[in-house]
Write a structure and sequence with these properties.
Blueprint (H helix, E strand, L loop, with lengths): L5 E5 L5 E4 L8 E4 L6 H14 L4 E5 L15 H10 L10 E5 L6 E2 L4 H13 L3 H16 L7 H13 L1 H8 L4 H16 L27 E5 L7 H18 L11 E5 L3 H4 L4 H13 L5 E7 L7 H4 L4 E4 L7 H12 L9 H7 L4 E5 L11 E5 L11 H9 L16 H10 L16 H17 L27
Parallel strand pairs: 3-9, 3-10, 4-7, 4-8, 5-6, 5-7, 8-9
Antiparallel strand pairs: 1-2, 1-12, 10-11, 11-12
Helix pairs in contact: 3-4, 3-8, 4-7, 5-7, 5-15, 12-13
């Protein structure tokens, strides 16, 4: 597919502003107040990337992006904007795959508890430092003993096992607070009530299924149906952060490719950093900074650039700033700060322009072929080529059933893991704690544990080996470290 510049916006005298594909993995920011056109800018970028064979992942938090799978021409406003810009529209659909954590509007999305890891799970459960330490200890015990944590019942069983045998683990792992174990168990109950139980389990999402091209070589646009997920904002943001960290851990280094391998849009990005502890914020900054070399472009969409920490904001080279409002002193400060993030244009008062932008207008600064930010320019975003109105439920089901991954994730798999193994060891009267050094010779339940641990290694290709007692490696955000295909 072509790697020609991507026409994003039109500046003065109908001069096009283009995003260079080889600079697209330098990340980007789409910012602006509600109703100023951020979603359309995101849509146009997704269309452009798809056109050149770059797969896209984005979350549909308002339920209005499903029309990407249909050709446009349904909006008089789009037709009017095209005429104003002198653009002859060639309406065309994008190949789309729908995903849904709850499995209602798209293919189910799941991850195992082990893949999520203790750091992200601690944020999901709202744990304090002491409770997070106990959770990390529980993961460590499970890893050392080859006990697979696939779903929430596995984690509950492991918490109960560690809590009841705290004295046995004290010397090797440290103190286990019964109060902390109880707090984690209560957090898991709340998570279940929010729908989290449907997310943890198998078959887990194979990230290779996101990096696909459709007919004609167009990149597949993966749409996460997130309107219901957004009712649990911590679950939403932690889930997307997990996906980003998994991409970081699994994809090989590619340097600076001619175009990205995948572009990842993170809408409502302020939720990513809300109440995040400093340790997690530092890890997020590290992932964003380094994932560029894996060929992944990350584009954050949020209302205000101040929602993004400076360390992360500095990594976002391509900027589209829609209008901001300045009704309060805090708003005025935000406008000034947003203006200062751009490379100054002597012919433009950036701070004033931010307040005057109309719907569909934006201040745009894109990286040149040397990676230098261009001077900020006032421009109008190009009209989208796909349908603006959402598709019907029947149309959505047709797209889901015709997908190449249909049938892969629809049926839940519940193979033996920590819950079953602990139940069997208890019923057989075996010791509650496995001895890693003697695991290969242990009879009965613990021999079966070793067999299951081996199956786990083959299934997810993430552990060091197949014998019980070999510790699982964990990556930068606490997930299981690995990089090969699962199938």
């Amino acid at each position: 597919m072509s790697t020609a510049p991507l026409w994003l916006a039109v500046a003065d005298e109908k001069r096009g502003l283009d995003l260079l594909p080889r600079m697209a993995n330098r990340h980007g920011l789409i910012a602006g107040a509600t109703g100023t056109g951020k979603t359309v800018s995101l849509r146009v970028l997704a269309e452009r990337f798809s056109d050149i064979g770059v797969p896209v992942f984005l979350a549909d938090v308002k339920g209005d992006l499903s029309g990407l799978c249909r050709a446009g021409g349904d909006s008089a406003k789009v037709t009017e904007r095209a005429a104003q810009l002198g653009v002859e529209m060639a309406y065309a659909p994008c190949p789309v795959v729908f995903w849904d954590v709850f499995g209602e509007q798209g293919h189910p999305v799941r991850a195992t508890v082990s893949e999520m890891g203790p750091l992200l799970l601690s944020r999901l459960l709202g744990l304090n430092d002491t409770q997070s330490g106990v959770l990390a200890l529980v993961f460590k015990v499970a890893d050392d003993n080859g006990l697979l944590l696939l779903d929430l019942k596995d984690l509950r069983a492991m918490l109960d096992h560690v809590g009841q045998n705290a004295a046995q683990f004290k010397t090797q792992y440290g103190n286990v607070s019964a109060a902390s174990v109880g707090a984690i168990q209560r957090g898991l109950l709340v998570l279940e009530q929010q729908g989290g139980a449907t997310f943890f389990g198998e078959p887990a999402l194979d990230l290779d299924d996101l990096i696909q091209c459709g007919d004609g070589g167009k990149g597949v646009v993966n749409i996460l149906c997130a309107d219901k997920l957004m009712q649990s904002p911590i679950l939403y943001s932690t889930f997307l952060l997990w996906m980003l960290s998994e991409l970081f851990e699994r994809l090989p280094e590619v340097g600076d490719p001619e175009k990205p391998k995948l572009v990842f849009f993170f809408d409502e990005a302020h939720l990513l950093f809300a109440d995040a502890p400093k340790a997690l914020e530092d890890k997020i900054e590290q992932v964003v900074r380094l994932i560029r070399s894996k060929g992944v472009g990350v584009y954050l969409a949020t209302q205000n650039p101040l929602d993004v920490p400076d360390a992360v904001l500095g990594q976002l080279g391509n900027r589209v700033q829609h209008a901001l409002r300045a009704f309060t002193p805090k708003d005025q400060k935000a406008v000034k700060a947003a203006a200062q993030t751009f490379r100054a244009n002597p012919a433009l008062d950036t701070e004033t322009a931010i307040l005057e932008l109309g719907v569909g207008e934006a201040l745009v600064s894109l990286l040149d072929d040397k990676g230098v930010p261009g001077v900020v320019e006032r421009a109008r975003i190009c009209p989208p080529r796909t349908r603006l109105t959402p598709i019907s439920a029947a149309e959505r089901q047709q797209v889901v059933h015709s997908s190449t991954v249909f049938g892969t994730y629809e049926k839940v798999v519940d193979r033996p893991s920590a819950y079953e193994m602990l139940q069997r060891s208890s019923a057989a009267g075996m010791p509650e704690k496995a001895a890693p050094a003697a695991a290969s010779n242990a009879p009965g339940a613990w021999k079966e544990a070793g067999d299951i641990a081996g199956a786990f290694a083959k299934s997810v290709a993430r552990s060091l080996g197949t014998q019980l007692g070999r510790q699982i490696l964990r990556g930068v955000l606490g997930g299981v470290l690995g990089g090969s295909r699962r199938r």
